[in-house]
Design brief:
The protein is mainly α. The chain folds into two domains: 11-130 and 234-269, no CATH class; 145-216. 67% of the residues lie in helices and 4% in strands. It has a two-stranded antiparallel sheet with strand order 1-2. Helix 3 packs parallel to helix 6 (103-129), helix 5 packs antiparallel against helix 6 (103-129) and helix 7 runs antiparallel to helix 8 (146-175).
């Protein structure tokens, strides 16, 4: 499952990268502020609406991918297994013991699965709608040293290059009769042995060329740098951040004061 930037002209694409990064961080922390199935489901439905606004099927392909579906089922089963309590719905007999499927286990399982899906889905929307270069430039404009920003951009730019290099190496191995596509640990070790060395040599050669090119352009000579493209921070960005911070503060206050009654997992322990 590959998640990478998909160009677009939706309102989500046009937001400042720092706005989307801040909202993603606030949203991720906020999902841990409550243990309500209803609110977790509401968060996931809100993300579905936001994903629809991107006018791209890519976020939904991440949400309904084989990895997500299989991992959420496994996560739900683990929570049901290790959180017994409340009403017992039925038991699953095994060889030495039986597993009781209880109200508490199902409740905790649903909360954890919805929280996990929401965070992964929100992260996918952020990655799919945010140009890595613009994100790095926005971080630099916000005060991050431009050397670190260039390091981020370079790392992201080299990912597809090394993926292509790895594909070329595998095709060369198959042409020479090396079986690295089979199952088992042996195939994994063979693939690492015959793939890592050519990739490391290729990476070192590219890094050497990049270093010479940077030196030729006097990279790092000035304490500050100029930009061809700039990301604007508009009224919509400020409104979204203020609204997100306000909702997060309300949830934080409610977490310690309980002024707004919400369904909680603890009630199923009684």
């Amino acid at each position: 499952m590959k998640i990478r930037y998909v160009p677009g002209r939706s309102i989500i694409h046009r937001l400042n990268p720092l706005t989307k990064l801040a909202v993603l961080a606030i949203f991720s922390f906020a999902t841990f502020m409550f243990d309500s199935i209803e609110l977790q489901l509401a968060c996931l439905l809100l993300l579905v609406v936001i994903a629809a606004m991107t006018r791209s099927p890519a976020p939904f392909s991440v949400l309904f991918s084989r990895f997500m579906l299989s991992f959420t089922v496994l996560l739900f089963a683990i929570q049901v297994l290790f959180n017994p309590g409340g009403t017992i719905y039925f038991s699953i007999p095994l060889w030495l013991l039986s597993i009781d499927v209880t109200e508490l286990g199902i409740t905790i399982g649903l909360v954890v699965v919805l929280r996990f899906a929401s965070i992964i889905f929100a992260s996918a929307i952020f990655v799919l709608t945010t140009d890595p270069g613009e994100l790095a430039y926005a971080l630099i404009k916000a005060g991050v040293p431009y050397r670190f920003g260039f390091m981020l951009v370079t790392a992201l730019r080299f990912i597809p290059v090394f993926e292509a290099e790895a594909g070329t190496v595998r095709q060369a191995q198959l042409t020479r009769g090396l079986d690295v596509e089979g199952g088992g640990l042996g195939a994994v070790f063979r693939s690492a042995k015959y793939t890592l060395q050519p990739l490391i040599v290729s990476a070192l050669s590219k890094v050497d060329v990049l270093a010479v090119s940077m030196e030729g352009r006097a990279f790092g000579y000035r304490p500050h740098r100029t930009f061809i493209r700039t990301s604007r921070f508009g009224a919509l960005d400020a409104t979204i951040i203020l609204l997100s911070v306000g909702i997060f503060l309300l949830l934080l206050i409610n977490r310690f004061t309980g002024w707004m009654p919400l369904p909680d997992i603890s009630i199923y322990n009684n």
